[in-house]
Amino acid sequence: MLPGRLRLRNFGPVKSGDIVFGALTIFVGPQATGKSLTLQLVKLLADIGAVHNTLKQYGVGWDSNDTATFASAVFGEGMQGIWSEDTRIERDGEPVNLQSLARRGKRDGQERVFFIPAQRVLAINPQSGWFRGFYDYRLGDPFVVRDFGEKLRRLAEQELLKGSGVVFPQKKRLKKIIRDALLKAIFGGFSLRLEAHMGQRRLVLRGDESASLPFTVWSAGQREFVPLLLGAYQLLPPSKTPRREPLELAVIEEIEMGLHPQAISAAMLLVLDLLQRGYRVCLSTHSPHVLDVVWALRRFRESNANEQFVRELFGLPAGPEAKKLAEAALNPEKDLKVYYFEREQGTVQDISNLDPASEHDFEAGWGGLTEFSGHVGNLVARAVANGAVLR
Amino acid sequence: MAQSSGRSTSKKAQSHFYRAVTSTPVLASAYRPGLQAIASADKEKIVCCHPKRLKGSVCIDETLRPMKPSEPRWDYAIGHSHTTNAEQIVWAEVHPAESGSNLGEMDKKLLWLTDWLKAEAPAMNYNPRRIVWVASGRSSFSANDPKLRKLRQRGLEFVGRRLVL
Predict the structure, then answer these.
(1) Can you spell out the DSSP letters for B80-107?
(2) How far is B8 from chain A (nearest CA, A)?
């Protein structure tokens, strides 16, 4: 089962946190404050059997009481210290300990969480332009990174290679409004294809009359986004089936990586699609643009705004597909939660209201994402008010 | 009436703010020590962590209401030492920040303040100063909203629901 609520004490850099997950949950905060570790913990708790099975399948072994080796295999080399004697974790009110998670034995092996890590660009080997499987990573790389690469490799071999060679845009993959938005904002009209070059299969971008562009000449944003898109393919099957069972939760780290704000908007449409299909979604982000979207959706809901506002927010055309997507985004049952992982005290603050006028700087400044911009603006105002430089 | 006497009078007499207020005819009797000019409804919105640094306050809105009932009057002027020896005047307006029309209202208030200072209160028209919009309720503008940027370019700070001096 997915955790609905997590209480953390002394887990890595998190000294204290109480997180209630919504349909969409977003983590913000500076580097190394525990956002990614917490998301990896969610994966571990929800999919413990599948994690054990995958590690075993790829020859990773540990004794049942060897929690340090298990923690390193899951969270990555050198991370065994994040779960110390002082660590206390409660999942929906029940204590969880590392010993019980590390213990070998028969478990439910279903996978409910699909994790798209921040290091997703590593899933494609830049030399070959093809996918890295679990074995192609270092032993010390975090489980979610290796597992993601393996899942894309399998997707390519089991689904994409059977098609026409065009990976994106494909008629049966994604809603047309989302395909069009991604094609324009991220791919600049180019299609993503599989082709063989001197016998080596590889991913390329190609325009109608242009030569194939290999991975190394793509823009940084395209290199970051293609693995994310293929991860979304895993979650959004090509048939009319809304979800790929038994997956229930999509975790996407730093969805904005390398993308221009217009492209971030297009990528956020994927999130709305996931929500519409009944997935829960967890994001981590350093982008005020992502929080702009959440803030707008919260205020639209409070104001009983109709779906037209959501369409306008994303520049979507009128039509039944866009209407349904927008209406789902306004569904009050799909609660939107935002948590700020702050560094000084190691706490996790609920800033879901995103009130720009809040007396708490961390909420008004959206966990530091707009704080600098507001600070710059007010300093400019002060300089202008004085007609000269500040004294 | 300016509430000053004895030893505190001589202290206030040294304050640039006190001298500026009392030499502005329409405000001469409006000076109040500390933050006493702030209306009770706004007391939680304008606070000072170091009361000794306050040089007094004036409620412009209330003072000028009989003379300019229909004008977009500014709310408060506050004298404050933002460091141990540097005094500033803080122009604070507590106003809704809930819709685009509030931006237009603040624009008019800012224009009014500038014109009024030049025409009727030149003694109060001094630097350093801050001109600050305090949201009276929830805000519809994020901290990086481009519409706020336009007002900031004209000298107006937006500080959310509370001004902490």
Answers:
(1) EESSSS-EEEEEEEEEEESSHHHHHHHH
(2) 28
Report ipTM for this prediction: 0.77
Measure in Å the smallest separation between the Cα of B127 and chain A Cα atoms. 6
Q: Under an 8 A CB cutoff, do B144 and A288 touch?
A: yes
**Full-model pTM:** 0.84
Question: A176-185 and A261-276 are packed helices; what angle lies between their axes, rounded to 10 degrees?
Answer: 160
Interchain CB contact of B150 with A (< 8 Å): no
CB contact under 8 A, B143 and A292: no
What average pLDDT score do residues A344-349 get?
Answer: 97
Closest Cβ opposite residue B128 in set A355, A371, A386: A386
pLDDT above 90 (res A384): no
Mean pLDDT of B136-156: 85
**B37 burial level (CB within 10 Å; 0-12, 13-18, 19+):** buried
Nearest to A21 by CA among A298, A353, A256, A339: A339
A377–B144 C-beta distance less than 8 A: yes
Taking only the tens place, the pLDDT of each residue in A53-65 is 999 999 998 988 8
Flag if A381 and B135 touch (Cβ within 8 Å): no
Question: For residue B3, what pLDDT is reported?
Answer: 43
Q: Do the Cβ atoms of A77 and A59 come closer than 8 Å?
A: no
